[in-house]
UniProtKB/TrEMBL annotation:
Pfam family, any one: Ctr
Protein known as: Copper transport protein
Localization in the cell: Membrane
Signal peptide feature range: none
Recorded topology in the membrane: Multi-pass membrane protein
Gene Ontology CC: plasma membrane
Domain of life (superkingdom): Eukaryota
Length: 147
């Protein structure tokens, strides 16, 4: 049997054709971030993958709104801390984006919930006891200005 593509290129018989969704769909049969994960017909692993996406997005907000640099820190130390936090934030945000590109509705909702709860806890004034500090260079800029 001749297994060829539309251009006449030979395709090995051992490769499985994988359907990739290009629109949102609902269901637990999804591949998120890694080949074969969470697996077909495995509700527990699907729920674990949703928790994983939720935590990634929650951590993006945590890192985005953390103020790890104290006044008086040297410029070198402050710059290194900012760079490390920026790298972590961008890496996690890109991982969340790739998970959302599975076009699974549950993954999208988990990401939105993670970002929302993370912002509520770390970015909003709801849990702040004092007025917001004056703007300074001791925290990371918002994602919209860095990328």
């Amino acid at each position: 049997m001749n297994n060829t593509t539309g251009e006449g290129m030979m395709m090995p018989h051992h490769h499985k054709m994988m359907m990739m969704h290009m629109t949102f769909y609902w269901g637990k049969n999804a591949e998120i971030l890694f080949s074969g994960w969470p697996g077909k017909n495995n509700t527990g692993m699907y729920i674990l993958s949703l928790v994983f996406v939720f935590l990634i997005c929650f951590l993006v907000e945590c890192v985005s709104h953390s103020q790890l640099i104290k006044p008086g820190t040297s410029n070198l130390a402050a710059g290194l801390i900012q760079t490390f936090c920026h790298a972590i934030r961008v890496g996690l945000a890109n991982m969340a984006m790739l998970a959302i590109m599975s076009f699974n509705g549950g993954v999208f909702l988990a990401a939105m919930a993670g970002h929302s709860l993370g912002f509520l806890i770390f970015g909003s004034r709801i849990f702040k006891k004092s007025p917001p500090p004056p703007t300074n260079d001791y925290h990371l800029p918002p994602m919209s200005t860095c990328c």
